[in-house]
Amino acid sequence: MPEVKYYLAENVYVSQKDISEFMIAKSAVRTAIELLLKETETSCDEIEALYLTGGICIDLSVEALAKTGIIPNELKNKAVYVFNLAESGAFAACFENKLYDLEDVSGR
């Protein structure tokens, strides 16, 4: 069966697969936020900054992230984009001679 495409412009479309992947990513990010808040018994009011990095968070504006429910609306004014966070952390660990920490995290 051919994939259904919803055209937004002549050469721009969204497929059911695109919508499904977006829903999965949205659920993963929002669930992680909710679980962290619950496990740490923290409210959105207590959060000073919400650091965003990675694919879906970099490709969408903070307004879009809040409007689609990816992040709680209460955190949109506290959102800060950090590009290449994983890479920055790895470099910092190398320069601080903390490679053993990286090995612990990686499960080696």
Which key features would you list for this structure?
two-stranded antiparallel sheet; 5 helices; two-stranded parallel ribbon; 108 residues; extended; alpha+beta
Spell out the blueprint of helices and strands.
Blueprint: E1 5-9, E2 12-15, H1 16-39, E3 50-52, H2 55-59, H3 62-67, E4 79-81, H4 85-95, H5 99-106
Parallel strand pairs: 3-4
Antiparallel strand pairs: 1-2
What would you note in describing this structure?
The chain is an alpha+beta fold and 108 residues long. It has five helices and four strands; from the N terminus they run ββαβααβαα. The strands form two sheets. A two-stranded antiparallel ribbon has the order 1-2. A hairpin with a 2-residue loop joins β1 and β2 (12-15). The chain starts with a strand and ends with a helix.
Structural class: alpha+beta
End-to-end distance: 44 Å
| Average pLDDT level | 84
Share in β-strands = 5-15%
In brief:
The protein is of the alpha+beta class.
